[in-house]
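The methods section describes the discrete structure representation at length, but only in general terms. An entry of this sort, consisting of the sequence and the corresponding backbone structure tokens, reads as follows.
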Amino acid sequence: HANNDEVSILSGTDANAAQSIVDLLKTHKVVNMVLDPGALILEMDNREFAASWLAARPDMEAAVFFNERDKECVITQANLDEAVERIASPYADSLSRCLIYLDDVHTRGVDFLLPLHSRAILTLGKGLGKDELLQAAMRLRQLGPDGQSLHFVASAEVGEALKKYGVQPGGGSSACRNSAKIFSWTLSNTIRGNCDRLPYYAAQGADHFKRCRAFAALSSTEFDPPSGQNALKSLAEAVIQSEDLTVSNMYGAARSPELLKDVVSNLFREFLNQDDRDPDEHSLVSKVMAHIQSVAPNVWRLQSKFGQEMERELEQELEEEINMEKPQPAKPAVPSISGAVPDFLQGRVVSSPQEVYPLHLGALTHTTLNEMVPGQFESKQIFVTRDFCRTIKASHALQDGYTKIPRWVLATRTGNVVVLSNFEAEFAAENYPSVFHTSHNLRMHLFSAIRRLRQSPHVLTRDIAFDAHPSLHVYAGSIQPEPDLLDKMRLYMGLVPHNTNTLSLIRSSCVDRDGFVPPLAREVFAHVPGGRGLEASPFQKSPVCMLQKLYSDIYGLGEELATSNVGKLLGTAQLDGHEG
């Protein structure tokens, strides 16, 4: 479409590309999104670029970007220096008054519910491939006539390359479809990149054959101490990759171009010319050669080992960086039976049970959410044991990934529930088997958080009569409950849905922006649909931020939460055109 044919070529070098794009945006007031798959914005970080752009657009209220921890953040005209997470901002549900900047990494796999007539700048950098272009462009889900549109921005170097494909700076014309020509350019970059990687693909294959031969020779050696040491030394010498290639080896190859299939053939020469070659090895080499002949029969490349050596060095650097970031192994805590558990199992009434705590005092004590928990999750019916709360020997910051999910619960006839650890459940099964089957005063139930659509809330048929308290489902991370249970969880959390019935109350500050109703305002909702029952919520302040961190950071439910019923309730999803 003609709206997608406008192309701007930046002047100067790539070193000042970010400021050049900001200057361009000052004159293009209809643009509300910047997509940077070309990685032109390098001298500013994401917040700095978003702030510079927002400062130049007083008609917009906020700018959205991703921070260094991959969190969606917002800055406003009132405070350009302090960013807050978007889900906790007034712009969680609407982007109509926001500018959006997506850096190179986030132009893939990120979706926003954008206004229908959004217009985006899409950057074109050296070597940009077809897949990167299309992935970035499709952040505009309604791209096309009478919908969303693109404006291409290219660096000076890329602009020269685009002119060879017939791209005309400016708006193009019916006879010159710039978007189609840009697509042709990215497609040629993709083909060129694939051909450039084929020698590396073949070099890895040759190295694989070399290692296979070395290990085959080792397996055929009698492994007595003297010969074994020599065999291991020979194996190491055979498989090691030399990192001190001489200048002549790296640059001394013929500089005249050769067909790519001949370049690859030279890599496999030692495996093709031997009389005792292995049939399987020869078959695999033949398949590699046939593949290269089929995809790149007339492609020419220079003979050089320099690129392969640089590839190996880069791979080693990446491996070292990953190894340095690997955390130390955690030391497990020794499991034990919490003090009051045997008393419970024997049916004794314990007024002050030892090592058994109310849910709000014990559940998240050993996590980074400890400071947020006081006053939250308060329940007079749900208790947790000390052994359930303890998992590893570590500081709070290191226990988040080891938090236990409720699995075994001991229910009394009065409605109280004690969450046990697996170790304690095994103790009960061995010493008090009646609590699993015939006991009337106590009953052990198998609980499972509801995290899939249409998942049954009961694991075993004998547990059908057991209905877990909403607080247990909220804590355990039941993010896909059926409507009735979802409504009970909502009332327990003290939240009201965002709809026309509550919108005026939200605007009047009776309700927090995230839907939480403070205790003093709950009487107002007694006659509002969806408000009856809020007075029973134990929360004194909004639990939304804490639950988002619990589900995403501690339980690792980030992706599932974004498309769940509870995710919508907490403001992390839009189910009818969700954001993720």
In short: The chain has 21 helices and 17 strands. Residues 178-219 form the longest helix (42 residues). Residues 309-326, 573-580 have pLDDT under 50 and may be disordered. The longest strand covers residues 79-85.
